[in-house]
Design a protein that fits this description.
Helices cover 81% and strands 0% of the residues. By secondary structure, it is mainly alpha-helical.
């Protein structure tokens, strides 16, 4: 694996953890470092780190607060 790829993986703890859990990615990254982008996308999808997931989490939190306030009335 190329040094730049290793450094990028080591600098992101979520990416490093995902790579350790899904070791088949080592094979792809050794063959072509351009697969790093695909790895990041898959990791973000699994750990729910995409922008749409964050918006959904905020929406769920607001709905929870709203329902709590309605109960308190």
């Amino acid at each position: 694996m190329q040094v730049e790829t290793r450094l990028k993986i080591k600098s992101n703890p979520n990416l490093y953890r995902y790579l350790r859990e899904n070791s088949y990615w080592y094979k792809y990254l050794n063959r072509n470092p351009l697969f790093l982008k695909s790895l990041e996308e898959e990791m973000k999808e699994k750990y729910r780190l995409r922008a749409t997931d964050k918006i959904e989490n905020i929406s769920n939190s607001l709905n929870l607060i709203k329902s709590f306030l309605e109960i308190m009335k």
